[in-house]
């Protein structure tokens, strides 16, 4: 895939903007989607993220990066945040932030882990837990732009209660979707709970000879494991794009 031009001049993307919470949706017991109005937002590409900054009355500030879940096109963006135990930022965003409250955001950030609707090659999305969020931006953008690029999504999650974006994913969102469980599966599930396996990628992904672009996102261990399986199945390393996250204090 050719290098992609990023929306907005660099100076614009590095500037902090005030974002106002316009709405929120509970995704799971510990994850919430925040709908933010950001005047002057320069636009983004699916797969990018933003920095969110909170500042206390005493002047102390802290920031964290969160993936964009929404398709681009307006000054309204969506972030889906998983609360981190003992975190500094995520508990406020998930539990305390009310409609009308404001935070600062900066971005969009990132230029490698992105997909654009003008791409036509097959795409394989492999997400672990909250790593689904930037992949969902790609799924939504494909649907909004009526792209004909073949998409397949493999979503690995601990339990049915941990699934994000229900019922949107149950409807397929226009993308062939397989949900795999690692701890417990719904009654009647054909696959027993287990870690992602090579046979899962064979059954629900693209064969290497189709030369798909593979996007893998999730915790570091999951990403390294999934990328290794893909290489073992013959996928070219240069066609595997990864985005990983780990404990940061939330």
From TrEMBL:
SUPFAM superfamilies for this protein: Ferredoxin reductase-like, C-terminal NADP-linked domain, Riboflavin synthase domain-like
Pfam entry (one): FAD_binding_6
The FAD-binding FR-type domain, residue ranges: 14-115
Superkingdom: Bacteria
Sorted UniProt keywords: 2Fe-2S, Iron, Iron-sulfur, Metal-binding
Keyword rRNA-binding among record annotations: no
Alphabetical list of InterPro entries matching this protein: Cbr1-like_FAD-bd_dom, FAD-bd_FR_type, FNR_nucleotide-bd, MRET, OxRdtase_FAD/NAD-bd, Riboflavin_synthase-like_b-brl
Bilayer-spanning residue ranges: none
Keyword Iron among UniProt keywords: yes
Cofactor(s) listed: FAD
Protein name: Oxidoreductase
């Amino acid at each position: 895939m050719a290098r992609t031009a990023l929306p907005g001049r660099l100076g614009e993307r590095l500037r902090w903007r005030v974002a106002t919470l316009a709405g929120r949706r509970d995704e799971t017991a510990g994850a919430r989607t925040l709908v933010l109005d950001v005047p002057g937002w320069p636009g983004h590409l699916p797969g990018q993220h933003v920095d969110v900054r909170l500042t206390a009355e005493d002047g102390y500030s802290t920031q964290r990066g969160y993936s964009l879940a929404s398709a681009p096109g307006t000054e309204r963006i969506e972030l889906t945040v998983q609360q981190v135990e003992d975190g500094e930022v995520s508990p406020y965003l998930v539990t305390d932030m009310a409609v009308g409250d404001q935070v600062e955001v900066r971005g969009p950030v990132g230029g490698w882990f992105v997909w654009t609707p003008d791409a036509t090659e097959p795409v394989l999305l492999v997400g672990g837990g909250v790593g689904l969020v930037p992949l969902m931006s790609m799924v939504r953008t494909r649907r909004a732009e009526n792209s004909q690029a073949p998409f397949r999504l493999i979503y690995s999650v601990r339990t049915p209660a941990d699934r994000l974006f229900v019922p949107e994913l149950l409807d397929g969102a226009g993308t062939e979707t397989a949900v795999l469980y690692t701890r417990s599966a719904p009654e009647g599930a054909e696959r027993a709970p287990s870690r992602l396996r090579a046979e899962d990628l064979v059954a629900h992904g693209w064969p290497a000879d189709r030369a798909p672009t593979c996007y893998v996102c999730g915790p570091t261990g999951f990403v390294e494991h999934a990328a290794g399986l893909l290489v073992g199945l013959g996928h070219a390393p240069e066609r595997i794009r990864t985005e990983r996250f780990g404990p940061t204090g939330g």
